[in-house]
Amino acid sequence: MLELLLILLFVLLIINYALGKREILSPAFLFTLGFLVSVAWAYAFRDKWGLNLKIETFWVILGGVGLFSIVAAIVSIFFMKRTLIEGLECDNRYEISVSRTGGIIIIGIMLVTIVYTVFEVQKIAPSGSIMGSIYAYRMQTTNITTDNASSLVLPKLLALLRNFTDAAGYFFAYILANELFKRKRVNVVALVITFLSLINGMLLGSRTGAFMLLLSFMIFLYIMYRASSNWKKHLSLKMLGMIALLFIIIIFTFQSFAGLLGREVGSFSKANYLAIYFGAEIKNLDTFIQAGQFPIRPHGTFGAQTFLEFNRTFGKFFGSNATVILDLPFQNINGLSLGNVYTTFYAFLYDFGYRGVVLLVILMSFVSQFVYEKVRHFTRQGDISIYTLIYSRIAVCLILSFFSDKFYEGIFAITFIKTVAWWVVLRWIFVRNRVGILK
């Protein structure tokens, strides 16, 4: 079954590439690509993990990816018909302008945020070094329970500052990409702000934020390249090869990067370490589905895993007083650790069963394709498109859907709404000749 799934996902990837007019940034292509890579890793380690894929798991993955592709194609057809009538919007009255004073103020806020974060992390997880505290804090948040959840919550002011720092990182990564692409020069202020945002994102022990920001920067460059020719000019084979090489470099430095954050990774070979991150999700999902104990409603909470942050924020208004936590038990097979990630489908099955997979995949595909079409057809030159910023996050979430429920965790979340609000404010400050807000 695993071999058949690998072949069919590859065929589906080619179909999405063809139907999407060779567009590697389309939601369907990204979503399929992530699962194809994960299944390929799982296939390579199938004997070591004792992976004999069940028919239910086969259809959840293939059906979910196929359904996502169908919905995306339907939304794309609708926009193609609209575009024939409306035409592409073109407006060159906008100009990005970053003053030194404004940049210094933002850098100052980010430095304060970094120092404040280090202080709080060391207070929550005392250790002999900063890296030791970061690792200890990460381990506590990874093994969070209802008993220790409240003690790991950061102060509200720090949470707000960290949210601003994250938003500013993406915003100025966009400006950095714009300067590189259009003027072939490095905006030093934008570079410093982007770098500080990367540092801030790793201070809680996770590499995901830094990875997402770096990938978003590449997405900005790609969108600018394609938009410069009204999306008619594709990347050359040489450029695609360079992108692939960069991904390979990032992947093979993943383990070393973990060591810098204080994690104990020396006992894993590079192949085994990467397999846990890129392929074990398939085995873990299969194990969960074989157990067959879903949907699960802890304390009667609606969408406890899928809509985690909304439940934490608004659950009390709907009669839920329980502390909602991610229920992601670690898995082991033959003495080998397989981590605690199960693909995005785990959350859907956990909360709503097979019906949830259908409904949530449809919604995810519709939202993703809608925002992507907005970027593709209505991005203005010389402006900072809020839709482009939003899609950069969506695109990364889609790529990482093989890993976990990044889309609903990251997009259907109060923190992301705040991030978009910060983008609107920053755009109002740093874009001249402003007309409107959401362009």
Q: What is the topology?
A:
Layout: H1 2-19, H2 27-44, H3 46-49, H4 55-86, E1 95-96, H5 100-124, H6 130-142, H7 156-183, H8 188-202, H9 208-227, H10 237-252, H11 254-260, H12 270-278, H13 280-291, H14 308-314, E2 332-333, E3 336-337, H15 345-378, H16 386-399, H17 406-410, H18 414-430, E4 431-432
Antiparallel strand pairs: 1-4, 2-3
Helix pairs in contact: 1-2, 1-4, 2-4, 2-13, 2-16, 4-15, 5-6, 5-7, 5-8, 7-8, 7-9, 7-18, 8-9, 9-16, 15-16
Q: What does this 3D model show about the protein?
A:
Helix content is 67%, strand content 2%. It is globular. The strands form two sheets. Strands 1-4 form a two-stranded antiparallel sheet. It has a two-stranded antiparallel sheet with strand order 2-3. Helix 7 packs antiparallel against helix 8. The chain has 439 residues and is an all-alpha fold. Keywords: Membrane, Transmembrane, Transmembrane helix. This is Polysaccharide polymerase. It comes from Lactiplantibacillus plantarum CMPG5300.
Secondary-structure element string: HHHHEHHHHHHHHHHEEHHHHE
Strands of the biggest beta sheet: in what spatial order?
1-4
Share of residues in helices: 55-70%
Radius of gyration: 22 Å
Main sheet record? 2 strands, antiparallel
Query: pLDDT under 50 segments (min length 5)?
Result: 84-89, 434-439
> How far apart are the first and last residues' alpha carbons, in Å?
46 Å
Q: How many beta-strand runs?
A: 4
The global form is globular
Helix count, DSSP H or I runs of 4 or more residues: 18
Mean pLDDT: 84
Notable features of this structure?
Polysaccharide polymerase; two-stranded antiparallel sheet; 4 strands; 18 helices; mainly alpha; 2% strand; two-stranded antiparallel ribbon; single chain; 67% helix; 439 residues; globular
